[in-house]
Amino acid sequence: MAYSDKVLDHYTNPRNVGSLDKNAQEVGTGLVGAPECGDVMKLQIKVNPETNLIEDAKFKTFGCGSAIASSSLATEWVKGKSVDEALAIKNTDIVRELSLPPVKIHCSVLAEDAIRAAITDWKKKNGVASEQPAEKAAH
Amino acid sequence: MSTNGHGNLPPGVKLPIYMDNHATTPVDPRVLEEMMPFFTGKFGNAASRNHEFGWEAEAAVEQARERIAKLVGATSKEIIFTSGATESDNLAIKGVAEMYREKGNHIITVVDEHKAVLDTCKRLEKYGYRVTYLPVQKDGLIDLEDLKRAMDDKTILVTIMYANNEIGVIQPVAEIGKLCHEKGVIFHSDATQAVGKVPVNVIKDNIDVMSISAHKMYGPKGVGALYVRRKNPRVQLAAQMDGGGHERGMRSGTLNVPGIVGLGKCCDIALNEMPQESCKLAGLRNRLKDKIFAELDEVYINGTMEHRLPGNLNISFAYVEGESLLMGINDIAVSSGSACTSATLEPSYVLKALGAGDDLAHSSIRFGLGRFNTEAEVDYVAARVIETVKRLRELSPLYEMAKEGVDLKKVKWAAE
Fold first, then answer.
1. Are B207 and B173 in contact (CB under 8 A)?
2. Residue B415 pLDDT
3. Which residue of A has its CA nearest to B398?
4. What does the mean pLDDT of chain B come to?
5. What digits encode the pLDDT tens for the residues B37-53?
6. Where would I find the beta strands (DSSP E) of B260-307?
7. How buried is A73 (Cβ within 10 angstroms: 0-12 exposed, 13-18 middle, 19+ buried)?
8. A64 is catalytic
9. Which residues 6+ apart lie within 8 Å of B10 measured at CB?
10. Which of A33, A92, B70, B238 has its CB 3.0 to 4.6 Å from that of A40, i.e. a possible disulfide?
11. How close, in Å, is residue B279 to chain A by CA atoms?
12. How far is A63 from chain B (nearest CA, A)?
């Protein structure tokens, strides 16, 4: 299948690959997907306790090129944002940015889930109540 | 196509590299050369009985028939020409099912057969036939005891492939055929991947009906053959194509003379060159395997190495997803067992049949080495695969978790 230039770019030069200390107070970790389905994403955020801004983000992904690109892009986008701004990122934004074909939309959904899961984990650790009724991964 | 910036290629390597010879093969120049006159000057219809053009075409077809028969230990009258192995499989299975309907309605096949066999059997189920799908063992071989148990007095046909197209595993064909003959059951084998690659002999292998394809053995696409045994036992087929009664009434339609000439030449070459070629291919295949195994941990071979096509290697790379691996080696044409691009997101049914977990099935690559691959290409492919798997494992949360000692089977995954 043909990949868009942006997917190829993220696949070849993924941004923010790596891991943060999952036990650290200011780190939130999201692990979504399943090996049997061919996609697993781990996305981590590090929130500055003073500014409440996401000052770092890292990911690791097992999955196709579009899944790698979606999670790489997600880490780029959440960096520098507040937690609430990061929650506003929609999978459709990722689809548009990467020109994902219909069969790859699930990759963008997973990336959105990963952001939400990381934020939920951070909120739980830091006793921040979710403003909306608890967001659950859409499955 | 991208060269991934690999500017300094070793001598003898030209990108992209083709290593997907189970999908199709290039036409051997010697084959093409023999075919060429039959497109223009010698264009006659092999069924034209009244002039030189027809006689010339017919003579060429008969020579091809003899060459094919010779390669597989048959007689030329037992070879029927078709458009390819899919048609041959359809004609064999539907033709036997229809012809022997009074005798019984039970067919036995195997879960990892090609879709041309499986879907034909599924269609017959709709028409009242009963089909048993035998499992395969972890090594890809069937258990002959399973076959024995599956046979009953309504069994008319056993259809089991000679060599599998994904994992290259060669079934114990001669024993299967022997069992069939003891029970008076017809044995069809789809030998698309085997003929021309390993010694196939319909007498020794106890095969009654056998499908053959040209484009898997360095011939043109769109032509194949069906071997139909004429004695001990004599097999009859109900034609599935009505028309002018070509091919002894079993397959109507004007013969594809250039294609048939090509198929004949393929068989002639294979007859002469198979021993050296299969030795060379097994050598290259083992070189590829050894290099990969020397550099990477947690790689697994799918199917037994002992009974296997010389050019086949099917490997699962744990913690790496197949499609992303293919993307990383996009200057090499191979095949992945992961069908992530299809709407179903289902991994290979062949690998699942072996009992490999879905995760490993998603991580597999099929290398199909062929006549024109070189040692330099194998070395390049091995290096690219190793480098890409290492890079993707750095990216893989599963590899990280496994290294931390997490049992991935016990993790509660969010997406389930």
1. yes
2. 56
3. A62
4. 94
5. 999 999 999 999 999 99
6. 299-301
7. buried
8. no
9. B376, B379, B380
10. A33
11. 35
12. 5
pLDDT at position B340 is 45
- Nearest CB neighbour to A62, from listed B343, B397, B416: B397
- Across-strand partners of B333? B18
Residue B3, domain member (yes or no): no
Nearest CA in chain A to B325: A64
Render pLDDT for A62-78 as a digit per residue (tens, 0 to 9).
999 999 999 999 999 99
Domain of B404 in residue numbering reads as 17-26+274-409
Number of domains in chain A: 1
Q: How confident is the model at residue B355 (pLDDT cuts 50, 70, 90)?
A: confident
Whether residue B259 sits in one domain with residue B279: no
pLDDT digits (tens, 9 = 90+) for B220-266: 999 999 999 999 999 999 999 999 999 999 999 999 999 999 999 99
Where residue A107 sits, what CATH number does that domain have? 3.90.1010.10
Q: What is the mean pLDDT of residues B274-288?
A: 98
> What CA–CA distance (Å, rounded) separates A53 from A55?
6
Tell me if A35 and B413 make a contact (CB, 8 A cut-off): yes
Contact yes or no for B327 and A64 at CB 8 A? yes
A3 φψ region: left (φ > 0), alpha (ψ -120 to 50), beta (else): beta
Do B22 and B110 lie in one domain? The reply is no
Which one is predicted more confidently, B106 or A103? B106
Torsion angle of the four alpha carbons B8, B12, B13, B15, in this order, in degrees rounded to the nearest 10: 110
Number of helices (H), then strands (E), belonging to chain A: the values are: 5, 3
Q: Report the complex ipTM.
A: 0.89
For residue B290, the domain's CATH number is: 3.90.1150.10
- What's the gap in Å between the CA of A29 and the closest CA on chain B? 12
| A136 domain-assigned | no
- A36 and B414 within 8 Å at the Cβ level: the answer is no
pTM: 0.91
Contacts of B221 (CB under 8 A, 6+ apart): B24, B84, B214, B215
Confidence check: pLDDT of A8 > 70: yes
Backbone angles phi, psi at B301, to 5 degrees: -90, 130
In a domain? residue B11: no
CA closest to B321 among chain A residues: A63
> Which of B236, B270, B304 lies at the terminal end of a domain, its last residue?
B270
Does B350 lie in the same domain as B335?
yes
In a domain, B416, yes or no: no
Q: Please give the tally of structural domains in chain B.
A: 2
Q: Which residues of B touch A63 (CB under 8 A)?
A: 321, 324
pLDDT at residue B7, rounded to an integer: 61
Residue-number span of the structural domain to which A84 is assigned: 5-126
